Amino acid sequence: MGEDFRKNLGESLMMHTLMITSPICTPWNNGTKNITYSMATNCKDVKFTLLTTKNSNLKNNNIIFKKIYTIDKPIVPLLQKFYLFSALIKKDDADIYHFIFKPNIITSIFSRFILKLKKKKSLQTITNIIPSVSNPKKFAFADYLVLTSDYMKDRFLKAGIKNVFKINPSIDLDKFKPSKKSQVLLDKFKIKKKDLVVLYAADYSFSKGVDYLFEAMPFIIKCKPNVKFILAFRIRNDFERRREIMLKIEVMCSKFSDKIIFLRTVNDMCSLINICDISILPLLNTVGKVDIPLTLLESLALKKPIIITNVKPLNEIMKSKVGIIVEPRNPVALSDAITSLLKNTKLRRKMGEEGRRMVSKYFNVKNTALEYQALYKRLMEE
Fold first, then answer.
1. Mind giving me the DSSP string for 82-148?
2. Rg (CA), the chain
3. Does a structural domain hold residue 177?
4. Is residue 380 pLDDT above 60, yes or no?
5. What region does 163 belong to: left with phi over 0, alpha with psi -120 to 50, or beta?
6. Residue 277 and residue 374 in one domain
């Protein structure tokens, strides 16, 4: 199919890369699949095959969508792994297998087996931090290894792994452009013109920082009574549902129940960020998240300053003065940082302008697509 597809387009000599990932499909609520799809749509000299779900309606003239999964889960369940294995053992015309997922022992063994069986050129991108790894070699199985942070790159280099590269995570700046605030959203969330909005977009499983935000809230609200908080936390399991319920009960029993808006999966993150004034991510660590979360890059692209905690590799996002860094587990420092930005419109605007410039320079998908394209070419020439 892939060979006929390329010949029909008169592109029989174009490199063909199969992206081995969790399902690439809507909603775009997972950093890894956002990175994969953005790269595939911006690498103009590479033909891609993306793995998606049976009911996906994604279409792109330059992409082959292979419908193998039956459900959309960022962590692929056992049955879905079987579907993936069944698809990969079949003959295909891909020149390169590009793996993008957080590896573990089982998936690494599986990937080595597939590569030995198919004898394909291979590239592996790890976008998430791997905690408590004494021997990173267990997780590196491809010809080339790409990390998305200097912190993770150094860990693998120190382990003696060769052909290690660093390519920043990236977003499409044409998609994330500052625009007028959506009146529909403002009315829906009962946000007034004078209100200042703080966005915290993450999840309940790994975002332990929400507890420190709740500690900081009374001080922030006392200083800026017109503040509102949007917690956009996706729900993926029973633990996260229970966590959300407990937080909602805590908010109902507090004096600031009208200040907090709870959201789950957001289909239009661009519009949501646009109605906010600052974006925060007070994580204790980045385990389970993309090394540099895309929501922060999207916020900066929309000229919103950010507040983050001083943890690796999250702090690598600060290539210039685009926000404030605070120490983790410090609600006082978090409160001071938020109130200082809410009070200072001029500073928010200055940081926001610099944020878009910084993202354009360091985290632009048009640039990272070229970097991956160069790696594909180098790999094919070896």
1. HHHHHHHTS----SEEEEES---HHHHHHHHHHHHHHT-EEEEEE-B--TT-S-GGGG--SSEEEES
2. 22
3. no
4. yes
5. left
6. no
Domain that holds residue 66: 2-170+364-381
Is the whole model's pTM more than 0.85, yes or no?
yes
Residues 70 and 130 in one domain: yes
Which amino acid, one-letter code, is at 195? D
230 lies in the same domain as 312: yes
Tokens 């999250």 sit on residue: 314
- What pLDDT, in 10s, does the model give residues 82-107? 899 999 999 999 999 999 988 888 88
28 and 62 part of one domain: yes
Q: Is the peptide bond before 27 cis (omega within 30 degrees of 0)?
A: yes
CATH code at 165?
A: 3.40.50.2000
Given a cut of 70, whether residue 173 has pLDDT beyond it is yes
Nearest-angstrom CA–CA distance, 162 and 146:
11
Q: Please report, for residues 79, 83, 207, 232, 323, the alpha-carbon distance to residue 355 in angstroms, rounded to integers and kept in the order given.
A: 42, 42, 23, 21, 8
Domain count, the chain: 2
Q: What is the pLDDT of residue 105?
A: 87
Q: Which run of H or E residues covers position 165?
A: strand 164-166
Arithmetic mean of pLDDT, 131-144: 83
Neighbours of 162 (CB within 10 A): 10
